[in-house]
Design goal:
Helix content of chain A: 40-55%
Strand order of the largest sheet of chain A: 6-9-10-3-11-12
Largest sheet of chain A: 6 strands, mixed
Order of helices and strands of chain B: HHHHEEEHEEEEEEEEEEEEEEEEEEHHH
Strand content of chain B: 35-45%
Strand content of chain A: 25-35%
CATH topology of chain A: Rossmann fold
Number of strands of chain B: 21
Radius of gyration of chain B: 21 Å
Order of helices and strands of chain A: EEEHEEHEEHHHEHEHEHEEHH
Oligomer: heterodimer
CATH superfamily of chain A: P-loop containing nucleotide triphosphate hydrolases
Number of strands of chain A: 12
Distance between the termini of chain A: 29 Å
CATH class of chain A: Alpha Beta
Shape of chain A: globular
Largest interface: A-B, 27 and 23 residues
Structural class of chain B: alpha/beta
CATH architecture of chain A: 3-Layer(aba) Sandwich
Number of domains of chain B: 1
């Protein structure tokens, strides 16, 4: 279970999060929606532990473990996975090698044995097939020369292989056409189960047609201003954020 | 009126060090093997010019002072047991010529079946320029041994390891100056894996003269993994005939003060030279990669991709000169020097130089300096990869562009292993 209490954070010197309270019980998928500049990406980076995002108050725990005290790699080992809004290109780093290194690092931290190249490729090929990705995406350098859609699918591929207990999807729908959107949604839905929870951060409702959330939260000006069921997403799509944000102000 | 000012005043420490090498020569000369006339010419040049000082333009960024202030003794008869150093040679199942403190060791070597090899005296060639290059004059004067390797026309010489083991004790530094010559006949080929390892304090000052015959291919892989207390100054001259390829990659990991100098002459039409290199340095290491590529014939290509990874207070130097002679039309020259600084105290000096006397040529050069990318680092760590491993991945990726040019898989793996081993101590 992810539990965020009174979380405040700065980007550099500028306060962005003004007290976030949010609980995502294990097994549930929650959506965080909000206008541009509301703090959605900041929330995801703070949870993943990026430099330059300074927590000034509050707590965030995953299954009782204090996430904010951990290095980024320790958070990953604890089960956190951030699907980046803008996946980073790594020239000179092969995708398969990168994924195997990451998987084996996580397996080591869990006290499991490492996979050799053959075992890993078998696993990776099964996942690429499921995500309708060409095999050569494993051979190419990480995200180098990938289209926007391929980059997002590559994020979901990593998630499928690394099997997090908490996935944070930061605007994974941006830049996707409808076919790619469905593939990505299927990839996330395939992971759903009693041990998996997700925070789906999005500006638009359309992703939530395919990944149907258990709860929807509206983030505005660094606070959760409204929470509700899946219908809330449709209301926002119809009426825009202005009403909700004004009500809360 | 001013008194006449000597054209070049050298500091006393430099003059004294040169004097010590000269008196060693004066004591040894009667006993040194090989071509006495060549040796005497080298000694005359050294007597005239001495050691390189920082006023020499070619040595502006690299001071030999730590070397000059080391009192070198003559190498003793090498110890029979070199097992520990032999174990540091890459495990390649190939013939090898092993030199210990500059002297050939038959018992440690495996003679190649195809190439012809002669040892026991310096293998002086016709390419070296002792009158211009001071460390080469020193080598010519004091060389005791070396390998003359010849691959006959049309023959594939396969893979050959040329290894140098240095065994200087801290209280008894030694200096050695091996002199090698490599000759490939027309259409011949050879992969030469040139590796230097050692322990303690010593000066390894090899000179290698290489003639690549018409249409021949020499792949020259170099691994400099000397003792971290040692001095390595090497000079390679290569003459590349029409249609021939000199394809080299030099990896510098060791040495306290190191310099590799390469003079490559594209002597015949459609010859090509690849002088790729990588330097990984830490602590207070200083390493210098200096190249002079001469396009003397038309339709030749030269390529240089040089990568520096610098940690601690280390300093990397790259000097790359491309000379295009008057008749060398359709020259294609490319040079790129990149540095990754892992610490704010590391330093890179980069000096590209183009001297072009032909009018229909394509020459480009560039240099970049940067740090590890914070965003890339975070991306890797967010996937569970520990920071030290993530940094290693990014450094390896930075080197990939140069290292991937090593086409021969077995040797590339050996170089990769050396980099991985070196990396473990790089950020300490």
């Amino acid at each position: 279970m992810l539990e965020i209490k009174g979380l405040t954070a700065n980007v550099g010197d500028k306060p962005i999060l003004h007290g976030i309270d949010l609980v995502v019980p294990t097994g549930e998928v929650h959506a965080v929606m909000g206008p541009n500049g509301s703090g959605k990406s900041t929330l995801s980076y703070v949870l993943a532990g990026r430099d330059g995002y300074v927590v000034t108050g509050g707590t965030a725990t995953l299954d009782g473990q204090d996430l904010l005290a951990m290095e980024p790699e320790a958070r990953a080992a604890a089960g956190v996975f951030l699907a980046f809004q803008y996946p980073v290109e790594l020239p000179g780093v092969g995708n398969a090698n990168f994924l195997r290194t990451a998987l084996n690092a996580l397996r080591r931290s869990r006290g499991e044995g490492e996979l050799d190249a053959v075992q890993f490729l078998k696993l990776a090929r099964a996942e690429t097939k499921r995500l309708a990705m060409p095999d050569d995406m494993l051979k190419r350098n990480v995200n180098v020369g990938f289209s926007g859609g391929e980059k997002k699918r590559n994020e979901v591929l990593q998630m499928a292989i690394l099997r997090p207990t908490l996935a944070i999807l930061d605007e994974t729908d941006s830049g996707l056409d409808i076919d790619a959107l469905k593939i990505v949604a299927d990839g996330v839905n395939a992971l759903r189960g009693p041990a998996f929870s997700a925070l789906v951060i999005t500006h638009y409702q359309r992703l939530l047609d395919h990944i149907v959330p258990d709860r929807v939260h509206v983030l505005a000006n660094g606070r959760i201003v409204k929470s509700g069921g899946p219908d809330l997403a449709r209301e926002l799509e119809a009426d825009g954020y202005a009403g909700v944000v004004a009500d809360a102000a | 009126m001013n008194a006449a000012i000597p054209r070049r005043v050298q500091p006393a420490w430099l003059v004294q060090a040169a004097g010590a090498f000269l008196s060693r020569y004066d004591g040894l000369r009667a006993r040194l093997p090989g071509d006495a006339a060549t040796r005497e010419a080298g000694a005359a040049a050294f007597r005239l010019h001495g050691l390189p000082g920082m006023r020499d333009e070619a040595w502006h960024f690299t001071s030999v002072r730590p070397l000059a202030e080391t009192p070198f003794a003559e190498p003793l008869t090498p110890v029979a047991d070199c097992a520990a150093l032999m174990a540091r040679l890459p495990s390649l199942d190939a013939p090898r010529l092993v030199f210990v403190d500059g002297r050939f060791r038959d018992d440690l070597s495996v003679v190649p079946p195809v190439a012809s090899v002669r040892v026991g005296a310096p293998a002086y060639g016709a390419l070296a320029q002792p009158a211009r290059d001071r460390m080469v004059a020193l080598n010519t004067m004091l060389a005791e041994d070396g390998a003359a390797i010849e691959v006959p026309a049309g023959v594939d010489g396969g893979l050959l390891v040329l290894a140098s083991l240095g065994t200087g004790a801290a209280d008894r530094p030694v200096a050695f100056h091996p002199r090698h010559a490599i000759k490939l006949g027309a259409g011949a080929s050879l992969t030469l894996f040139d590796v230097s390892v050692g322990e303690g304090v010593y000066l390894h000052n090899p000179v290698t003269e290489i003639a690549v015959g018409k249409g021949a291919t020499l792949t020259h892989l170099r691994l400099q993994d000397e003792s971290r207390a040692a001095f390595h100054v090497s000079t390679v001259y290569t003459d590349i005939a029409a249609g021939a390829i000199y394809d080299s990659f030099a990896l510098t990991l060791g040495g306290k003060l190191a310099r590799m100098e390469v003079h490559a002459k594209l002597a015949g039409e459609k010859a090509s030279a690849h002088l790729n290199a990588a330097q990984l340095l830490s602590g207070t290491q200083h390493a210098d990669f200096t190249t002079v590529v001469t396009h003397a014939a038309p339709h030749c290509a030269s390529r240089q991709t040089v990568k520096n990874v610098l940690a601690g207070r280390s300093r990397g130097v790259f000097q790359g000169k491309i000379e295009v002679a008057r008749g060398a039309q359709k020259t294609d020259g490319y040079q790129m020097n990149q540095a990754l600084l892992l610490s704010p105290d590391a330093e890179i000096d980069s000096k590209p130089e183009l001297e072009i006397f032909a009018d229909d040529v394509k020459c480009s050069h560039g240099a970049t300096v940067g740090e590890l990318d914070a965003e890339q680092l975070f991306y890797l760590r967010s996937r569970g990869i520990p920071e030290i491993e993530a940094r290693a991945i990014l450094v390896r990726a930075f080197l990939a562009e140069a290292l991937d040019l090593v086409s021969y898989e077995r040797t590339r793996e050996a170089l990769e292993t050396a980099i991985a081993d070196r990396w473990e101590g790089l950020e300490a």
